[in-house]
């Protein structure tokens, strides 16, 4: 990658800001049912802010959020719609090339590594890949808590032959914020995840949906691992703005509050630190909006 690649930010809070109804457990999937035009508007605002990549609003289109019955009846159509909306927004841009990333979420719940079921995971990933494939330029397995989830994504997209990125969510409790060895939420070491990524065929290894304070150490660890292996895997970051501990409740049980101190200025300073450490793909996750992306785009360009 010849330059910094700017991702979009978090979908859900931007949907709320523009007037979409969101409630648990469906969360951002509900906007695809009730207000798809707002979903497209969010994509357009991130593109206007400077995003080079927009991500399909398919994160909550799994039984964990919409239920097994609804997934079987409506899941395929809603997944395809999420791809269509992102593709339409990207294709409307005439002065530069905006890519669409197909979001492949943790099938059995965010921050829930103990729920991973290797016997069932491909049943659901297969539907996501089949329905999104006509609309996306690359795959993004995101907010994955353990290496086995990354391997499941690698398996699911193998026949599609588009580039794939793997993004792990990091442990971000107080010990990690104070400088503990970077780990995934499963407890697996980032060093082990990076070595797996180097041999997986992934084009990029990213870290997302964790506090900004823990991201630089993960980037530095991955950089060392890739250097030792002479690997060309890119490194990326898109942090969240959540307040407090994130592992104390289910990801579809309520609305996490966001930090008042993490404005566009302070987030852009974190982004500069990640770029300095070796990240070449930077964006935002939950609570990071178009305003943040606009500012970090300006700052990183400078």
UniProtKB/TrEMBL annotation:
Q: What is this protein called?
A: S-methylmethionine-dependent homocysteine/selenocysteine methylase
* Binding sites annotated in the UniProt record for Zn(2+): 209, 285-286
- InterPro entries (alphabetical): BHMT-like, HCY_dom, HCY_dom_sf
Which prosthetic group or cofactor does it need?
Answer: Zn(2+)
Q: List GO molecular-function terms, semicolon-separated.
A: methyltransferase activity; zinc ion binding
Task: Please verify whether the record's keywords include Methyltransferase.
Answer: yes
GO annotation (BP), single: methylation
**Domain (Hcy-binding) ranges:** 1-300
């Amino acid at each position: 990658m010849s330059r910094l690649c700017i991702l979009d930010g978090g979908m859900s809070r931007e949907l709320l800001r523009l007037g979409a109804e969101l409630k648990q457990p469906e969360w951002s999937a509900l906007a695809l049912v009730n207000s798809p035009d707002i979903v497209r508007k969010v994509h357009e605002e991130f593109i206007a802010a400077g995003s080079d990549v927009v991500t399909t609003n398919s994160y909550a289109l799994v039984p964990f959020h919409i239920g097994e019955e609804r997934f079987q009846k409506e899941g395929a159509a809603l997944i395809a719609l999420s791809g269509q909306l992102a593709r339409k927004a990207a294709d409307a841009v005439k002065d530069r090339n905006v890519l669409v990333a197909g979001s492949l979420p943790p099938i059995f719940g965010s921050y829930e590594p103990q729920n991973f079921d290797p016997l069932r995971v491909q049943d659901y990933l297969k539907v996501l890949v089949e329905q999104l494939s006509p609309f996306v330029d690359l795959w993004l397995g995101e907010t994955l808590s353990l290496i086995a989830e990354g391997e499941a994504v690698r398996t699911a997209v193998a026949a599609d032959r588009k580039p794939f990125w793997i993004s792990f969510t990091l442990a971000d409790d107080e010990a990690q914020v104070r400088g503990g060895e970077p780990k995934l939420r499963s407890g697996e070491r980032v060093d082990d995840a990076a070595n797996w990524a180097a041999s997986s065929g992934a084009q990029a290894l990213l870290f997302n949906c964790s506090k900004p304070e823990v991201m630089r150490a993960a980037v530095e660890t991955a950089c060392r691992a890739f250097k030792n292996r002479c690997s060309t895997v890119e490194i990326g970051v898109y942090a969240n703005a959540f307040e407090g501990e994130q592992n104390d409740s289910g990801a579809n049980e309520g609305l996490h509050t966001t930090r008042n101190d993490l404005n566009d200025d302070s987030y852009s300073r974190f982004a500069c630190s990640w770029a300095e450490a070796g990240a070449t793909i930077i964006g935002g996750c939950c609570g990071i909006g178009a305003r943040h992306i606009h500012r970090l785009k300006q700052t990183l360009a400078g």
